[in-house]
């Protein structure tokens, strides 16, 4: 730790301005944290719009993670660093940082492959259409020359036959062009459906079909940025009680069915359009509510607990039943996103330690 602090002191004393047009490369002797921060900032500067987030938002998140790696300030682009206490090196969020990097790379790759497929198929269709049109144009030019030649020599019968051939060629060309354009339109519709499906896959958990962690991370940052006086928001963390026993006793397929049924229950319990329900990881779910205070959220949580408690999940000759524990908290005006999540997580821990199957406010 002392070596790191000395290195950081040397870094802060350097006053050489960065070159115009980008982040400077790390200098000789800089530590791994400098290199990591440089790589994150450079990645953010060269990223592009993906199926899930635009380039500007991704760049801000890369810069925030770079700052977190160097100083320990929360990796929240919506909050000024000076407003939050820095974390020591051992307590920094290296796991979530790795998850963010992996997720960003997956998003970029999926977006690139989708765009390449769209471009490849569209260019192929256009090339075939232009080739067809060029061939038809040449045949029409040949027929026109033949008509001109026949007219000069007075071969009226030949003129009549060639004119009929030219008209037939034009009609055939129109039919082919219409058919080809219809085919291209169909291809574009298919590509649009593929793109929509790719967007869904990029933003949803494949098992429960709820929004995934990436969507939640982006949504909670937007909520934090948008929070103004008299606009409240509540965050909930839901954890299934003794879920490991379900997997150990009945197998993972049974556990998957439990997760899907609980996910459906969450969607029915929080049906508003601006309510976000997502899978947080494993047997944990997260709910983000806007325009609601902690007291009202407590009423909804009581209903959620009843609904989950009432679930009957058939498995072979048995009926599986589960309960859940909930930690929740209303966002404070000056609170960072990470502090908010930590407060909710602590409330969830208390709900577990106090006997489970209950909600505790943080």
> Can you identify the CATH superfamily of the domain at 213-361?
Reverse transcriptase/Diguanylate cyclase domain
* CATH class placement of the domain at 213-361: Alpha Beta
Largest beta-sheet details: 5 strands, mixed
End-to-end CA span: 33 Å
Determine the number of helices (DSSP H or I, runs of at least 4 residues): 10
Report strand order across the widest sheet. 2-3-1-6-7
Strand % is: 5-15%
Are there runs of 5+ residues with pLDDT below 50, and where?
1-29
If you had to describe this structure to a student in words, what would you say it looks like?
The longest helix has 59 residues, at 94-152. This protein has helices at residues 2-13, 32-46, 55-71, 94-152, 156-203, 213-226, 243-250, 252-269, 294-309, 337-353, and strands spanning 233-240, 276-281, 284-290, 313-315, 318-320, 324-330, 359-361. The model is unreliable at 1-29 (pLDDT under 50). The chain has ten helices and seven strands. Among the domains are: 108-203; 213-361, Reverse transcriptase/Diguanylate cyclase domain (Alpha-Beta Plaits, 2-Layer Sandwich), CATH 3.30.70.270. It has a five-stranded mixed β-sheet, sandwiched between helices. Helix 2 (32-46) runs antiparallel to helix 3, helix 4 (94-152) runs antiparallel to helix 5 and helix 8 (252-269) packs across helix 9 (294-309). It is of the alpha+beta class. The chain is elongated, with a radius of gyration of 31 Å.
